[in-house]
UniProtKB/TrEMBL annotation, chains A, B:
PANTHER family: TRANSCRIPTIONAL REGULATORY PROTEIN DCUR-RELATED, TRANSCRIPTIONAL REGULATORY PROTEIN DPIA. It comes from Leucobacter coleopterorum. This is Transcriptional regulatory protein. Pfam families: HTH_20, Response_reg. InterPro entries: 2C-system_Tx_regulators (IPR051271), ArsR-like_HTH (IPR011991), CheY-like_superfamily (IPR011006), Sig_transdc_resp-reg_cit/mal (IPR024187), Sig_transdc_resp-reg_receiver (IPR001789), WH-like_DNA-bd_sf (IPR036388), WH_DNA-bd_sf (IPR036390). It is found in: Cytoplasm. Residues 6-117 form the Response regulatory domain. Its main location: cytoplasm.
Amino acid sequence: MTTPIRTLVVDDDFRVAGLHRDVVAARPGFVALEPALSVADAQDAIRSHQPDLLLVDIHLPDSNGIELVRACNIDAFVISAANDAPTIRRALRAGALAVLFKPFDPRLLTERLDRYARFRNLVSGTGPLVQDELDRALAILNGSNDPVTLSRSATEKLILEALNTDEASASEIAELTGVSRATAQRHLVALAARSLVEVRLRYGATGRPEHRYAAASTAEGV
Amino acid sequence: MTTPIRTLVVDDDFRVAGLHRDVVAARPGFVALEPALSVADAQDAIRSHQPDLLLVDIHLPDSNGIELVRACNIDAFVISAANDAPTIRRALRAGALAVLFKPFDPRLLTERLDRYARFRNLVSGTGPLVQDELDRALAILNGSNDPVTLSRSATEKLILEALNTDEASASEIAELTGVSRATAQRHLVALAARSLVEVRLRYGATGRPEHRYAAASTAEGV
DNA sequence: CAACGTCGAGCACAATGCGCAAAACTAACC
DNA sequence: GGTTAGTTTTGCGCATTGTGCTCGACGTTG
């Protein structure tokens, strides 16, 4: 497979769109088109550039990303801040090959892109497929073969849940979760490094400034 | 799962439609509607009966089965005599949850129906899904051939009995049962993957958090 | 017979908690 | 203003515990 996969990000949040475009651009075998910030932009870009893959946010200013996916005969991932089951079912029925819940670790997108590339390699021809080949391709896209190295560890999940929508220090999270302060801090620092958590410093008391952590607001702003 | 999955077969070949309807009708948890022989028939049946799942042949006399799948917000399998890769890609982009190549062994349809039922069970709620849950549901639908049988080996039975109503670590279960710690853990992990066992992490001691296992509560029977 | 699945032993290493030193702040003092 | 002391928080190295994996043995099945 020598032809790069042209990928169009469709998201009205300029910063998120840029982040996802950068993830795509960094992937060997992929070419990232300039993101589209609306369905109308996306349709223009689709006409101009014939992308092979769309990364479409559900909530777009002028329409619904799911309808865009349904209407175009292009492979697509749906990206969603909404994670209610009915929305997800609608996305799958519209033809989404994957659904990713914001905010997600960029490595999850990377992994899904790689899976898609392998899937695409198997179904990209013009000749006949046999059932086994198709099943294998779909298993690559959706299978559970890979160990859950890219999903959040149990402790990470616990810490993110403890954060909820509040801001907290590492000590407070430690008390809420039962892990030690040092462990909570280690995880929070790592999550911040991956942009899943935002950090703010609190001054005014004696001693070092306290790091306050909050869940990343990229999803909440949608 | 108490509500049967109403399933509509859409195929212009009366005999094949009847065959597939019979496969569906024979499946516990499924109700087969009277097959539709054209897209127009199908649209009538969809309005009258609100099917949960369509089995749609691509080649229909008055239109294209893929367009029917695309246009309706209903879970669908596509059944196809055509097995060229471009057609398959179109079907997947239209939202087909599975693609089956005619002629196929009825056991393949049976297996795919069962997978769909389990997938549906996981995504049928109205509440939020997390990424892991969605991924697991899709893996069930399309994953490699994990025979997630409900039968239990002797060792599994032994371990479940040792769990009883208590919470225990793999080491503790190993001592109670006489199997090795690694084997106990293997089985407990597999049981957890099948939602028969619940896992909780215990923090506070030096060293990795300890996985504590408990028999799944009866809430899983919903 | 070969193939396959399960098990146990042993090992590497992942992930935790502890203890402590350093960093970084505020308040007090000169 | 600058300097120092006290305090709080961070960050790190180390020891410990638990997990996950490999590989060979063994029993079962075709």
